[in-house]
Design goal:
382 residues, Aminopeptidase, Immunoglobulin-like, 4-stranded mixed beta sheet, 13 helices, glycoprotein, DNA-binding transcription repressor activity, RNA polymerase II-specific, AEBP1 protein
Length: 382
């Protein structure tokens, strides 16, 4: 915070551009209860997960709805996407109940803030390790097929299946943008902070490969909102001594700036009708990536994409879809890709179908006289 304010006042062109062209949200502590517990223990007595727990006894990072398992179960039943969405998956009803075992931080207020801000890309900063972790954090159970050999019931715990997100390549790009700019994160020749190196000397790892868990904040953000969230583990020591803080800042400063700049990569734009009115909650579909995003209340959207050429469509209920080709370049700066949708007749057709009890409307054959019953039904319909 101090760096951004000071450099902005001093006229740093990079920081000025970042502040004026980017909506930046800084949350000093998502879990103040856990912070107090870990701060009291200090660097020597604190353990790796001490700051995760709230005063209520919840691990805040793993207290979100497990939407990944719900999505995979629907895929097994071939319900995606015609009956079960591949994006903006609704929260299960049992999680919204008054007596649900949910922390205040992950309850209605926390989820509402995540949905309202529509951060792209958000990140949660943690300590105790030195790497970048990206979804999925949940390990998918090995699916059984008729041709597969029987598996022991506890095989899932020993050999979980790594399931990549549809945005796997984009997550890796974002993770590498942070790790590669860090002064020491890719120097893994001594191993990891606590175990062997799990990142293949790259400083990045998929969460399910490193530390599988269900109901993580990263998985929830990806499947319930427009967010592509990662976990940034800034260093091995959760609570460095004051004399070490300056070096920790230097290690992470360039990474933080580079990561925030990645929001300006991909495509962005407006979805409007033919009168120029914005269309909220329109769906943006990128060909080849089975995960969609939605427009905000002002009809605007953002979609982080790797460099390349994409076939993109915008769809909204009551409108004809629009399709165009959008190119993403290597230079920082999102490509403007706007859509204008024309109204369709489907809304009126649905109203007519509803008047007919959603039964098929019998086609009148020219030249064949109508029966009295058909004539009466036609008169009532008109």
């Amino acid at each position: 915070m101090q760096f951004l304010c000071k450099e902005y006042q001093d006229g740093n062109p990079r920081v000025r551009s970042l502040v004026t062209e980017t909506r930046i949200h800084l949350v000093p502590s998502l879990n103040p209860d856990g912070y107090e517990l870990a701060r009291e223990a200090g660097s020597e007595l604190g353990n790796w997960a001490l700051g995760h727990w709230t005063e209520e006894g919840y691990d805040l990072f793993e207290n979100f709805p497990d939407l990944a398992s719900a999505l995979w179960a629907a895929e097994e039943r071939r319900l995606v996407p015609h009956k079960f969405p591949n994006h903006h998956i609704p929260i299960p009803e049992h999680y919204l109940a008054e007596d649900a075992t949910v922390s205040h931080g992950t309850g209605r207020s926390g989820r509402a803030a995540m949905g309202r801000w529509r951060l792209t890309p958000p990140s949660n900063l943690q300590g105790g390790e030195k790497l970048v972790s990206y979804p999925f954090d949940t390990a998918r159970p090995v699916s059984e097929t008729p041709a597969a050999a029987p598996r022991p019931p506890d095989d899932y715990e020993d050999n979980p299946e790594l399931q990549e997100t549809p945005d796997h390549a984009i997550f890796r790009w974002l993770a590498i943008s942070y790790a590669s700019a860090h002064l020491t994160m890719t120097e893994t020749f001594r191993g990891g902070c606590h175990t062997q190196d799990m990142t293949n000397a790259m400083g990045i790892v998929q969460g399910a490969k490193w530390h599988p868990r269900a109901g993580s904040m990263n998985d929830f953000s990806y499947l319930h909102t427009n967010c592509l969230e990662l976990s940034l583990y800034l260093g091995c020591d959760k609570f460095p001594h004051e004399s070490e803080l300056q070096q920790e800042w230097e290690n992470n400063k360039e990474s933080l700036l580079t990561f925030m700049e990645q929001v300006h990569r991909g495509i962005k734009g407006l979805v409007t009708d033919q009168q120029g009115e914005p269309i909220a909650n329109a769906t943006i579909v990128v060909g080849g990536i089975n995960h969609n995003v939605k427009t905000a209340s002002g009809g605007d959207y953002w979609r982080i994409l790797n460099p390349g050429e994409y076939r993109v469509s915008a769809r909204a209920e009551g409108y004809n879809p629009s399709v165009k080709t959008c190119s993403v370049f290597y230079d920082i700066g999102a490509t403007q890709c706007n859509f204008v949708l024309s109204r369709s007749n489907w809304k009126r057709i649905r109203e007519i179908m509803a008047m007919n009890g959603n039964r098929p409307i019998r086609r009148i054959v020219p030249g064949r006289p109508m029966t009295p019953r058909e004539r009466l039904r036609l008169r009532m319909r008109l």
